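User: Here's a chain of 200 residues. Predict its fold as tokens.
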Amino acid sequence: MPKAFSEKEKDVIRQQMREKSKRLFEVHGLRKTSVDDITRAVGISKGAFYLFYESKEVLFLEIMEQMESELRESILAQTLQPKANARENVRRILSSFLLTYDAYPLLKSFSQSDFDYLLRKLPAERAQQHFNRDKNFFDNLIKKVKREGIALKVSPRVAMNLILSLFLLSLHREELGDVYAETMKILTDLVAGYITEGVT
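Assistant: Prediction complete.
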């Protein structure tokens, strides 16, 4: 049986697991990083790992959600430029979201196949919690845009789905190749225009 840890030890170990696992996931990816790799890096037994996390996938999701929370808070804290038109303000928010997302190596390297793998391995209720977090963020982003005085020319649900589609497309950056950045720039502008100007 794994040894019993004090609450202080648990806090330290959990923090080390997040930090060291993040580096392992960045270097080797989700699928190639094993529980043995993580426990060796932290200096705990394999049995002790399961005192903290149900699986490496649950640990990965916790790390990813922590980074996403930082990213999302920074996006929601942005102030819009008063002299810019509605389309430009929304385009700037969306571009900032995608560019900041790329600043996190773990998020930038996360692909559609990784996403599919993660969903297969996660407990259904934990995956649903993640989707609820995503929905809440996009809801709050739409509310922010409205609060800043930008009138949406489409329904909030359509606006949210269009914004979400940009994120989903970013999971296919490898397939898009060296034109990924240019493609996303064009699509971000088109989405911003459609949301704020409606059908032309």
